[in-house]
Amino acid sequence: MAGSPETGLRRDRAWGLLLRVVVGLLCVHGLVTGFVRVNLVCFAEGEAVRDPVACEVVEVKLGSRTITANVVRVNLCDPRVRVSVGLGSDRVGATEDLLALARRKGAVAAINGTFFNAYEKGPVKAPVGTIITCGEFVHKGNTGTVFGITYDKRGMMAPVRFKIVGGINGSEQWPNNWYAYFINRTPTSANSVIIYTPWRGTTTGVGDGISVVIEDGKVTLISTGDQAIPEDGYVINFRGSEESLASRFQVGAFVYCRLEIEGGTSESAAWADVTEAIGAGPRLVKDGDIAFSVESAAAEGFTEAKILSESNARSALGITELGELLMVTVPGANMAELAELMKSLDAVEAMNLDGGASSGLVFRDKYITCPGRDISNALLVFVDGGL
């Protein structure tokens, strides 16, 4: 089904099913240590231009090299423009051809999004970064930089780190407090607490641990192993040393959870208004200056040479002072070159996306850059009413 599934995490659901990123529900406590402020570019409603989404090929000379970049420029000041995140087959962990995804959703432009486990042999190829769509937190990541956009098209980029805390029967005091590591993530360690929502599919797909089923804000079942995910709720799976936490839940108890941002700055309150977000990275440009270095990327959690130093096909997002969103692909560049390129395109904020065989760009129903595989997720651009 195109669009957001009906879930217990919808913006209009009862308070007991909260995982929404809205004012008052995202308890803001700042950013990850080492990154002091959230950078915002506020896109006010402006005079509509004839074509708010345009594509161009730009040659950028960097030292002795000339890099050809495919660039889609999106005028976010145009009131007809919308930006959202699309998931392959509308499921976390599923994949889909990028052009097919754009066509199915009716997007004018699309670029591949966060990293994912493309070489996983099973049916679930889990994403890595944070994903928010339709105001719902559908996947939680712990690395990189996150691009977020609000309902009124304010764009922001920051290495935000979210945490999930919850309560039982209206209290977060022991023994009614609980927490989770991730949302809709395939377990990668023996010990974990993971929330599964309908964005994951019909079942959790996790065969071990203790599962607590929440429907309409109330515990309806406590059992073991794989469980069906209710359309109006979610399942919390406790594994390994965390199984004891499940003993705090009883059938019939009212349960809720919420999101906090780790750290402590007032400016991070802006993230409470974010309705669409994709996390990838590393950060390339901040406040108009080159932000990438091996050290800064490592601080975001990146350690592999294919990110830090090797040349590869790349995708990137940028924000300009004029209120443009830049969607960029290049056939080959290292991260330092990509940062220079984004700055040369007048980006005041920029970040890397998944690259290599995932790098893809769609404009007006055709590939500008064709990826070498199906992708997990993408950033989509719409123009309401057409042109």
List the keywords.
387 residues; mainly beta; 2 domains; 7-stranded antiparallel sheet; 6-stranded antiparallel sheet; 7% helix; 39% strand; disordered N terminus
Strand order of the largest sheet: 3-4-23-22-24-20-21
From the alpha carbons, calculate the radius of gyration and give it in angstroms.
20 Å
- Tally of DSSP helical segments: 4
The first-to-last residue Cα distance is 26 Å
Any low-confidence stretches, pLDDT <50, length ≥5?
A: 1-38, 44-49
What order do the helices and strands come in, and which of them pair?
Elements: E1 26-28, E2 39-41, E3 53-62, E4 65-75, E5 81-87, H1 98-105, E6 109-112, E7 131-133, E8 136-139, E9 145-150, E10 155-158, E11 162-168, E12 177-180, E13 182-183, E14 192-196, E15 210-215, E16 218-224, E17 233-239, E18 255-261, E19 274-280, E20 283-286, E21 289-290, H2 294-299, H3 305-308, E22 312-320, E23 324-333, H4 335-344, E24 347-352, E25 361-363, E26 366-369, E27 377-383
Parallel strand pairs: 1-18, 13-14
Antiparallel strand pairs: 2-10, 3-4, 4-23, 5-27, 6-25, 6-27, 7-8, 7-19, 9-10, 9-19, 11-12, 11-18, 14-17, 15-16, 15-17, 20-21, 20-24, 22-23, 22-24, 25-26
